[in-house]
Amino acid sequence: MSKQKYFVLDTNVLLHNADSLTSFSDNHVILPMTVIEELDKFKRQNDELGRNARSVIRHLDRLRMQGTLKDGVTMDNGGTLAITVEYKDMPGALLDMKIPDNRILAVANSLHEKGETVIFVSKDINARLKADALGIDVMDFEKQKCNIDDLYTGWRNVTVPGEVVDRFHQEESPQKTEGFEFYPNEFILLQDEANPKHSGLGRALDKSHLIHLNPRNEHAWNVGPRSKEQRMALELLLDPDVNLVTLIGQAGTGKTLLALAAGLECVVHRGSQEKLLVSRPVIPMGKDIGYLPGTKDEKLLLWMQPIFDNLTYLMRHNRSPEDEGTVQQKVNKLLKDQIVELEALTYIRGRSIPRQYVIIDEAQNLTPHEVKTIISRAGENTKMVFTGDPQQIDNPYLDSSSNGLSYAVERLKGHGIFGHVTLSKSERSPLSAIAADLL
Which of 56, 81, 209, 298 could form a Cys-Cys staple with 205, CB 3.0–4.6 A? Predict the structure, then answer.
């Protein structure tokens, strides 16, 4: 029988995922007292960190009723959980015990010196570096992570005999493709094995059948695709049967612009939804807009400036000579008439959102649980679109593999109401493309 391990958890692990307490099988989970003190500081916050802190504290209180947390309480998974204050000061004042992270590390080090198999778990890279320097095994919290290098792209090239490509173009009915297994709503570029330029772009209806792209979805709000990937994105963004779409791409690939164009098309021209709701996480200043001057709407105007830039471009692009008023007046009218609504993610939790086209921009800064919370707000006939770049993350405890956008792509692939496209080429401008590729 293998020796049980002692997993010493950093506070950020619990704040990232409240279920992490029960994620270590039948081993020992150790919470230093400093972690409890830090949870107490977070519990009053009205955001995801505060909610996770309160959830962990309630869970600990339920466990307390089963025994003494000082000695360890048995959990449902067969493991034990204990809260400890026992640690020795580091020899030679190696670490300053006034710093909370160092007191947490001291607990792990004390167990390590007793000969126990100790693993320090933290989302903080610096804390993991310190633990490693002390000779303690370390790990990131791996639950709800995916391999970003193998992330589902939503499309692929398939080499087939030329007659297969010909038949695809000639017949309107779904085409069965032998020898391959597709995901629903995956895009397939059929390429002639003798002449790669002889090709056809289809969309998977199921595991083996391809259908043609809908010509009606070629344009949105007078905006057309500049690449095959953008054409794929428009197909998903405008299809009423695809309720959830994720778009990943670097700066300038057009993901936000296409999502806004499709949202306006569906709300204003097609009437598929009643309103376009746009939001983005407020990360750099602590997940709140309180630091900005003015009313809530004035604060949002500042934070949502990238959305306004895209809306201004779209209104100018869709403008006809007989239109009255300036482009800015047209944008303001969309907001005044509540055709377009801008909202901070803080205020979306708890809402039910029916018959709306919802765009969540910069979704790579959300945790998997936050993405789940937002999607669960969707009511009848609501379509949700998440856009972002997993390589550009501002949240200090997320990375390209653990953020909610990447996790959602990997978990939801294969479901008929979900579609995804990874856009790789910058279309904003030659300068933008050079910056994205080389800087």
Answer: 209
Q: What is the pLDDT of residue 439?
A: 65
The string of pLDDT tens digits covering residues 10-61 is: 999 999 889 999 999 889 999 999 999 999 999 998 878 898 999 999 999 9
Average pLDDT score, the chain: 89
- All domains of the chain in start order, with CATH: 6-139 (3.40.50.1010), 216-438 (3.40.50.300)
- Supply the pLDDT for residue 312: 92
**If 0-12 CB within 10 Å is exposed, 13-18 middle and 19+ buried, where does residue 291 land?**
exposed
**Res 425: pLDDT:** 83
CB 180 within 8 A of CB 158: yes
Please indicate whether residue 38 or residue 252 has the higher confidence score (pLDDT): 38
